[in-house]
Amino acid sequence: MSTKLVFSDIDGTLLTNDHVVGYLTCHEIKRIISAGIPFIPVSARMPEAIKNIMNDIPVESPIVSYNGALIQDESGKIISSSPMSVDTAVDICNYVEKNMPSTTWNVYSGHEWFSQKSNDRSKVDLEESIVKVKSIDSTISDIKNLNIVHKLLLMGSVEEITYQEEKLKKIFPQLSISKSSPAFMEIMSKGVGKDFAVKFLAEHYKVAIEDTMAFGDNFNDLEMLRAVGIGYVMENAPEKMKEEIHNIAPSNNDDGIGQILQKIK
């Protein structure tokens, strides 16, 4: 195997627990890019939130946002877009407001983030501080006027998100619904996923899937790690992940990606 494309999850993988990229990892990412090997972040985050991270390294790279619902090349040109129905997004927002009182809905459309107008903005404020992007206070009427929706993010209590996950899957079987953390639920079109993104980009760059590498730390990374030539799960990942993926990288706080990339010559 000769590694020609490298993919990486962001939170808990590329970023340390302090939400920065380690020195060694930055150095090695720049080195492999200089050697002609693209390093591609793959995340549920919106494009601007990913760009902020890559600008800090700093490098230009393709970007996979919304878990593959939006893919851009190095220049920012959209090369794949897999939106969901706006009407369906409105139905979910209505469901949340009626049945999930502890949950805040968030709708992502291209480069914009619309968050539910609420007296309690604590969850949204925290997310804004982490991703360094401001959301737009919105109502369901605002969502109805959108032309495109790439993702919904539901931020709630662990109990409410856990209780409602299976219900939402039954009500909206045409969607991909999964938790990205115990209190966060990500909703996108069915068929969209990180595995789709790596296969699409491997074909786009005319690279055999056997010559690709990926890093991840949680269950929403599992199919991506299985899809590539060699997948690494971070040491800080849940034990069940490490049982599934036997290549273990050092933790996100120990420049795990950087240490593995050093092996690419």
- DSSP strand tally: 14
Q: Report the helical percentage.
A: 25-40%
Give the SSE string.
Answer: EHHEHEEEHEEHEHEHEEHEHEHEH
CATH superfamily of the largest domain, by name, is: HAD superfamily/HAD-like
Total domain units:
2
Low-confidence stretches: none
Distance between the termini: 12 Å
Estimate what percentage of residues fall within beta strands: 15-25%
Radius of gyration equals 18 Å
The CATH C-level name of the largest domain is Alpha Beta
Strand order of the largest sheet: 8-7-6-9-11-10
Summarize model confidence as the mean pLDDT. Answer: 95
General shape: globular
- The helix tally amounts to 11
CATH topology of the largest domain: Rossmann fold
Q: Biggest β-sheet: count, sense, barrel?
A: 6 strands, mixed
Sheet/helix structural class = alpha/beta
For the record, the CATH architecture of the largest domain stands as 3-Layer(aba) Sandwich
Pfam families: Hydrolase_3
Protein name: Hydrolase
InterPro entries: Cof (IPR000150), HAD-like_sf (IPR036412), HAD-SF_hydro_IIB (IPR006379), HAD_sf (IPR023214)
GO molecular function: magnesium ion binding; phosphatase activity
Short summary of the structure?
With 265 residues, the chain is an alpha/beta fold. The chain has 11 helices and 14 strands.
Account of the protein in words:
This protein is globular. The protein has two domains: 5-81 and 192-261, HAD superfamily/HAD-like (Rossmann fold, 3-Layer(aba) Sandwich); 86-189, Hypothetical Protein, Haloacid Dehalogenase-like Hydrolase, Chain: A, domain 2 (2-Layer Sandwich), CATH 3.30.1240.10. The strands form three sheets. A six-stranded mixed sheet has the order 8-7-6-9-11-10. A five-stranded parallel sheet has the order 2-1-12-13-14. The chain is α/β, with parallel strands linked by helices. The protein has eleven helices and 14 strands. The protein has helices at 10-14, 23-34, 47-56, 86-99, 122-131, 140-144, 158-171, 194-204, 222-227, 239-244, 256-261; strands at 5-8, 39-41, 63-65, 70-72, 78-81, 104-109, 112-116, 136-138, 151-155, 175-181, 184-189, 212-216, 230-234, 248-249. The protein is 37% helix and 23% strand. It starts with a strand and ends with a helix. The model has no long low-confidence stretch (mean pLDDT 95). Pfam families: Hydrolase_3. GO terms for molecular function: magnesium ion binding; phosphatase activity. It comes from Floricoccus tropicus. One of its GO terms (cellular component) is cytosol. This is Hydrolase.
